[in-house]
Amino acid sequence: MKKPSRPEIPRKAVYRLSIYLRCLLRLKDNGLPTIASEALARAAGVKPTQLRKDLAYFGTFGTRGLGYDVEQLGAMIADVLGTNRLQPVILVGVGNLGAALLAYQGFGPEGFEVVAAFDAEPAKAKTRTPFPRILPMVDMARIIRERRVRMAILTVPVTSAQEVVNQLVEAGIVGVLNFAPIGLQVPEDVTVNGVNLAIELENLSYFIQD
Amino acid sequence: MKKPSRPEIPRKAVYRLSIYLRCLLRLKDNGLPTIASEALARAAGVKPTQLRKDLAYFGTFGTRGLGYDVEQLGAMIADVLGTNRLQPVILVGVGNLGAALLAYQGFGPEGFEVVAAFDAEPAKAKTRTPFPRILPMVDMARIIRERRVRMAILTVPVTSAQEVVNQLVEAGIVGVLNFAPIGLQVPEDVTVNGVNLAIELENLSYFIQD
Prior knowledge:
- The structure is a homodimer of 210-residue chains.
- Chain A is of the alpha/beta class and 210 residues long.
- Chain A has two domains: 11-81, Arc Repressor Mutant, subunit A (Orthogonal Bundle); 87-201, 3-Layer(aba) Sandwich (Rossmann fold).
- Chain A is built from nine helices and eight strands.
- In chain A, helix 2 crosses helix 3 and helix 7 crosses helix 8.
- The radius of gyration of chain A is 20 Å and the shape is globular.
- Chains A and B meet through helix 1, helix 5, strand 7 and helix 9 of A and helix 1, helix 5, strand 7 and helix 9 of B.
């Protein structure tokens, strides 16, 4: 299969590709060889027109009357997303949240390997987690280069988030999963996805009031 | 101060209120009594017109030439968000991610108290975390009623997420922070916010490719 080109597609469409991929993996586990686009759309919670439009960014898929080949479409999406190989990731900031994420076993099965974690106070950080590779900040740029790391999980305090992200970008990081509740200034070719648990809870708090 | 009424405002505006509140708390810590709307907008990373529009949902604030009273505006937003009192939360599903979140110390300072955690296999779950209140699923509805819990953090496997959310809604939960990578069907008066770490990473993975 020819490697699909990577057109400029909306970020929400990329999120939907992740959902489609999960549905396809479940179908494959259940031994289904093909699926109609209507059924896949329903499983993913989108309209069939949306599904077809999202997949059309990458070429023509499916056979009229037969639907999609579950394995082939899954492999194509994994290839587009770049998750068909183990992706090295570093984590910066081993406070409570950083330590909690290092304890989380869910990244590996999804194709991400945390190759090292960094903290301004490695000795203190080591008391929070059994994770074996906690290094001082001065080693960060070297490890990023040596391990060809392109993604970082950022769990430092708000006050140092921008400074750390500058160092990360300088060292070659181009994707940041940011848990610090602050907007980060980065060059155009760097992508930052923000996750803020407290803000998500606070947002819910608004909607659950009487 | 009169309690502001709660008009129907867009969810994104509620997220921005959380950002404004964090900026105001930092200003308060730094001893600033007032702030111009332009400066607050800049700190929050929004346009001044956006800030004024968001606040206008709740009444008239600020004095021409003086700006906003930092403490008063902060108190108003905390009141609107419902985070000016400790909010009881339960966590359901003490697998790796659930255990990691129970270890996270960041909820308390933000106004959320995890009053209990539930798992289908409490004995096994207890090996993953020192959190003291891990209970079997049969106790869930009773605890929700007794502690008047309205919010739940959902960290169960995809395969049981919908069934568990049905039980939660039946027992009185009206806000769910969902970590299971699946869309949940809930009644209209129930709010679900989704967080999916693997999908966020996978999304970054797309954007960091050469």
